[in-house]
Every structure is written in C-alpha cells, then in structure tokens.
C-alpha cells in the first residue's frame, strides 16, 4: 500500500476500516479529557465494555445459588471453562480438547515443564532464545536446578549475531542440531517480548523433534496477535497469558495447549490436583489420581470463575469480529503505517533517529514495533507519556509501541508519530 503522511490519509483509512465499530466495545483510558493513544496492548490489553456485565452475571449466580452455582443455573461453573475451548482453540490453531484455561502464565510454564522437562544424565539440556522474558529465564533456571543440574551448563541460549537485534532462524536450527544428543527440550517464546520478533515455530518444532527433544512455546505475546497452528506444527505444549492481546484483565487467566499425541503418554509425569480429574468423576472423591483426557488433565485447582468471566467477555469479541484473520489483516496495515511514519521522520532529519529493531518482514512480526532512539530514549518515552501516548519502556533502551486492531485507529498511529517528531525539537 502507498502511504501518505497526512491526517486526511489516516482518517480515510479509518473510514474504510471494516473493524472500526469494535473500538466502541472497549473502555479507552482518558488523558486531560481525551482518549489516550493507547499503544500498549503488548503489555495489558484494554477492558471490553461487556466485562462488567459478564462478571456481574457470575456475581449474581453466586448471590442466587451460593455453592449450588457449581452445578445449577444456566451457566454451571463446573463447566464454565468449556465454553471457551472452541474459540480459544481457533485462536491458537488447536483442537478444543488440546486447550484449557487455568492459573497464571509462569505457574503454567512450571506445570508443563514438570511434564515436558524430565532430564536424564544424557539428555538434560534446554535450548532457549537469548533474552527471553525474565520470568521464563527464572522458571527455566529453577527447573534445571530442581533436577540437580547447573543452568550454566544445562541452559543453551541462542543470541543474535554481532550487531544484530533479532535471531537468525538458521542459527536457531543449527544450534538445535549441534546439541541434538543432549537436548531434552527446546523452549522459545512465540514472539520475543523485547524485539517483537516472531519465531519460526514450525521449523523450530520440526528440528527439535528430529533432534529427539520436546518443543514448547510461551505465547504471551503471540496469542491473539498472530496466526498460530500449534496442532499442525506438532508443538508438544504451549502456554500464554490472556491479559495482552486477549484483553482479559490484569493477572487474567492463562491458557495451555497440550498436543493430542500426548494424551495417552504415560511417561509424562504431572503435578496433579482434583481439578485435573474429569469433571464427571471429580466429586466421587475416589483415591488415586486419574487425569481427565486432554489438556484438562493438567488442571490443578478450582476454576477462578470471575477471571474466567472476564476472559469470556473478551473471547466472545474474537468470535464477534469474525476470527483472528480479520484482526491480523488490520494489524498488518496499522503496524505498517507506524513503520512508514517512523521512516518519514528519519527521512526528514536525514538520519536514523528512530531505529526499528523489530523485523521488517511483516511475516515475522505482530502488532509491536520496538524502537531504539538515537537521542535520549527514556526522555522521548516520557514525552510521549506526558502527551497522552501510552506505550512502554523496556530496559535498557527500547520503546515498545503496539497498535492493536480491536481498538486502535490509523489516526492514533498518525498522532503518536507526530508527537514523536515533535519530541525531537521539544527535547533539544
Ligand atoms: C513471555 C512472557 N512470559 C511470562 C510473562 C509473565 O507472566 P506472569 O507474570 O503472568 O506469570 C510475561 C509477561 O509478563 C511474558 O511476556
Ligand atoms: N504482567 C505485567 C505486570 C506488570 C507490568 C507489566 C506486565 C507484563 O505483562 C509485561 C510484559 N510481559 C512484557 O512483555 O514486558
């Protein structure tokens, strides 16, 4: 598409936007009486207006039924999560029985590592992306220690080449091949939180399997953002949070995927709890854990219904919008326009004042662009915040901005980039 650096152009794109009605489904935070320019769905997605009603309904069920709410009413809580399996499966490219919702993200990563990281003296290494989100690094390190290994030796990190920011797929695959004999697991994010790079999950999973290792993904930044095909890629397991692109609230419930090929795999140990026992037999209170078939067999604890109600409100919007493909189409345009506006600023000043470190090829990025400022990045970020643009700053030197197709407009992108341009003169 041929872009133009004018407000009229941005407004024309908004006028043609098939999804423009969806912005009204969200509550937009305010700054000095106006909507903020919210470009931070990579950290916390905005609240759907329907959330109060969905949560209110469950509060009403609690009020009316008390404990009977688990079994009675039009939405018995015992089965509440089941309503979200089909739409969630569509979002991550899975079969409904391969997904469930439970706990929060790092907790689920640990639970899945209990099953999929069972090292022995020969195969004990985990291969990961260098610069993974810290919570994942800590989880991996502590798992390796828990099994009596030393992270310095057992965790292999693949880093970008000298002078580059993103990882080369060939380097990832050859690192897997090189360590094939000792690898127990390849664990990557779907999208790196810092650079916004989408990894080649299909190739990584294939190569990991050829090497005799399991392969799992943390999809915090990918779920609800980019198309995924976890089942077809043969991924062993995955987990994600719902509070970013799935708009399901701070600390919102997390999702897991376990490939159906593992449903009968008796070698996979797990940490059990009664919620992993099939719902039909859970209340028989029998001795001896028998996991429910499917991803549900990894559930541990009572469903947090209020969090699930928020999630349901948000997930229903994915169905209403007509699926992830629709969102992705607009997302590519929004992020493409943001990239163009950065290029315009750099051209105007004749130097790369804003360096985008996210891959240029749209196939390998989602909503987010990560920018390194040649001039003071932190001050530039603060300038944006003071002027009503919400993005985020990640140490040591990146501003992350993510236009989100559900609620952002092309005008948001235009206005944010005008403020960035302005910051260059305002901050001198
Ligand atoms: C890739 C990744 N993993 C893990 C987390 C943390 O997950 P939680 O704090 O919800 O456990 C985040 C974001 O906070 C993340 O981006
Ligand atoms: N859970 C949070 C709580 C507080 C502040 C930020 C977060 C994030 O999710 C950060 C995000 N994972 C990131 O990619 O930086």
TrEMBL record:
Which residues are annotated with the PTM N6-(pyridoxal phosphate)lysine?
244
Question: What is this enzyme's EC?
Answer: 3.7.1.3
According to UniProt, this protein's pathway is: Amino-acid degradation; L-kynurenine degradation; L-alanine and anthranilate from L-kynurenine: step 1/1; Cofactor biosynthesis; NAD(+) biosynthesis; quinolinate from L-kynurenine: step 2/3
The chain's coiled-coil residues are none
Q: Which cofactor does it need?
A: pyridoxal 5'-phosphate
Q: InterPro entries attached here? A: Kynureninase (IPR010111), PyrdxlP-dep_Trfase (IPR015424), PyrdxlP-dep_Trfase_major (IPR015421), PyrdxlP-dep_Trfase_small (IPR015422)
- Where does the source fall among the domains of life? Bacteria
Note the Pfam families from the entry: KYNU_C (PF22580)
GO process annotations (BP)? anthranilate metabolic process; L-kynurenine catabolic process; L-tryptophan catabolic process to kynurenine; NAD+ biosynthetic process; quinolinate biosynthetic process
Task: Indicate which residues the UniProt annotation says bind pyridoxal 5'-phosphate.
Answer: 105-106, 133-136, 218, 221, 243, 274, 302
Gene Ontology, cellular component aspect: cytoplasm
Q: Which Gene3D superfamilies match?
A: Aspartate Aminotransferase, domain 1, Type I PLP-dependent aspartate aminotransferase-like (Major domain)
Q: Which UniProt keywords apply?
A: Hydrolase, Pyridine nucleotide biosynthesis, Pyridoxal phosphate
Catalyzed chemical reaction(s):
L-kynurenine + H2O = anthranilate + L-alanine + H(+); 3-hydroxy-L-kynurenine + H2O = 3-hydroxyanthranilate + L-alanine + H(+)
Task: State what this protein does.
Answer: Catalyzes the cleavage of L-kynurenine (L-Kyn) and L-3-hydroxykynurenine (L-3OHKyn) into anthranilic acid (AA) and 3-hydroxyanthranilic acid (3-OHAA), respectively.
Summary of subunit composition and partner proteins: Homodimer.
**NCBIfam families the record matches:** kynureninase
Membership in a protein family? Belongs to the kynureninase family.
Name of the molecule in the record: Kynureninase
Which organism does this sequence originate in? Mucilaginibacter ginsenosidivorans
Instruction: Name the encoding gene, please.
Output: kynU
